[in-house]
Write a structure and sequence with these properties.
The complex is a heterodimer of chains A (216) and B (231).
Chain A lengths: L1 H51 L13 E4 L11 E8 L2 E14 L2 E9 L5 E8 L51 H36 L1
Antiparallel strand pairs in A: 1-2, 2-3, 3-4, 4-5
Chain B lengths: L2 H14 L10 H7 L3 H25 L8 H23 L1 H7 L10 H11 L4 H31 L1 E2 L4 H4 L8 E2 L8 H4 L1 H26 L15
Antiparallel strand pairs in B: 1-2
Helix pairs in contact in B: 1-7, 3-4, 3-6, 3-7, 4-5, 4-6, 6-7, 7-10
The chains are: A alpha+beta (216), B mainly alpha (231).
């Protein structure tokens, strides 16, 4: 009995030893790559944002000028996201919001969009999706320019009932055979615009405070 | 490690016991990311790297690992290595990291990695083990490359699409339009295309083996059917 206990203990110690070594290697790699990872993720996001907001249309550091947006049904988000505020000479030019279309053909479609203070869209881009290649993936700028149809559109330009695909009686083009995908994207953008209008003051007024914080 | 040993290991990994065509292990990434040539080669090389490192790590510690806990220890080693590779890709090859996404962490569950650790590296010295891991990985990469190339040509009519994710914007010009004005064949890109393509490649390999056996001896060659898939 004693011998069995001792050998079990030895085996356990052995396993713990390997676990400790493994954990140390992982922690070391994590700390060594953490800054590079944060930098690449930020660079990728900045690249995306620069497609929405032409370089030169703002002069602040939009990666620093951010505020946290709580999860909201209208945005389709289930965790807090970061909104970036673009400004020129201290005046807000646009807010970059993240939104999620929960009802894509194959799960969620992650969107990022720039909304100008007057409620018009600077542009929309798909950040992440799993739509069928060759069918629903034309929402991706890498495949098709379809997503650019949102540029400049607003709720004052089109009444709410027009925020649908042509097939459903709205104003937005879609590709035959793949209507679920654009329907989800259009709905998500429309809702995000409604969210923006309901929270415009918060987004831009809270702005001044955070700007002070940055200056300090 | 003698030259004959090396030759044997290489022949096993690349052809005779090819993980993708004969052992039929590690089919999950094979089927999922072989929709373009670039994806296929990238994941193949990442798997090769992990297999080489894991076999090279398992071999020297093999005498310190009690038999009862060897599987958990091997899994631990593989998981650590994969996570390290994932961090490095996230930091330095971000475009590719986005594309291969979930499949990089899934290398952990690719049973070919554990299979080589268990059946080769746990019984052999460091150098042959590392070499075996590398050759098995390259064998898998070769299958992935052929399958990825076939599916991309059939599905999109191009080769090397998405290469800009690896080498930056200027690499977009490297994409080869094999069939100009091609409208695409969705089936080849979707998972069924992977099964059909893999089936064709296995058939081609068996046909080549049978023909070679016939040529070498007039005696009927023993059946060289692939072992049953195990995961």
């Amino acid at each position: 009995m004693k011998r069995i206990a001792r050998s079990s203990l030895q085996t356990a110690v052995n396993l713990v030893f390997f676990a400790i070594i493994g954990t140390s290697i992982l922690s070391a790699t994590y700390y060594l790559t953490r800054d590079s990872i944060a930098a690449t993720v930020e660079k990728a996001k900045l690249k995306l944002v620069s497609q929405l907001l032409p370089v030169g249309s703002y002069d602040n550091d939009i990666m620093q000028d951010t505020r946290t947006v709580a999860a909201d049904e209208m945005l389709g988000t289930d965790e807090a996201t970061l909104a970036h505020i673009a400004r020129r000479d201290g005046k807000p030019v646009a807010v970059v919001l993240e939104a999620v279309a929960p009802d894509g053909y194959s799960g969620k479609i992650a969107l990022i969009m720039a909304i100008r203070p007057d409620g018009s869209l600077g542009g929309v881009r798909v950040v992440n999706h799993n739509e069928t290649p060759g069918l629903g993936d034309y929402i991706d700028i890498a495949k098709n320019d379809w997503i650019k149809t949102f540029d400049g559109r607003s709720r004052s330009l089109f009444p709410d009932e027009m925020w649908k695909t042509r097939k459903d009686g709205g104003v937005f083009e879609h590709t035959t055979g793949a209507t679920v995908t654009p329907r989800a994207v259009i709905k998500a953008v429309h809702r995000a615009l409604q969210y923006f209008e309901a929270h415009r003051d918060e987004l831009f007024v809270a702005d001044a405070q955070s700007a002070k914080g940055v200056r300090k | 490690m003698t030259l004959t040993e090396m030759k044997d290991i290489a022949y096993n990994g690349l052809w005779k016991q090819n993980p993708g065509l004969v052992q039929l292990l590690g089919l999950c990434p094979l089927l999922a990311v072989s929709n373009t040539l670039v994806n296929a080669i990238s994941l193949g090389l990442a798997t090769t790297l992990v297999m080489t490192l894991s076999s090279a790590t398992v071999a020297p510690v093999r005498s310190y690992v009690p038999n009862e806990i060897r599987i958990p220890v091997f899994v631990l080693i593989i998981a650590v290595l994969v996570t390290v590779v994932q961090y490095l890709m996230n930091a330095y090859l971000y475009g590719l990291y986005i594309v291969l996404g979930i499949f990089v962490p899934l290398i952990v569950t690719n049973c070919i990695v554990l299979a080589r650790a268990e059946s080769f590296a746990s019984k052999n010295p460091v150098l042959p083990s590392a070499f075996d891991g590398m050759m098995m990985g390259l064998g898998l990469t070769a299958v992935l490359t052929v399958l990825g190339g076939l599916r991309e040509i059939a599905g999109k009519g191009t080769l090397l699409s998405g290469i800009d994710l690896l080498f930056g914007e200027q690499a977009k010009a490297w994409v080869i339009p094999v069939i100009p004005d091609y409208h695409g064949f969705l089936l080849a890109i979707l998972p069924p295309g992977a099964f059909i393509g893999l089936g064709l490649i296995i058939a081609a390999k068996n046909w080549l083996d049978l023909r070679a056996a016939k040529n070498i001896s007039s005696q009927p060659a023993p059946e060289t059917l692939p072992e049953a898939a195990q995961g």
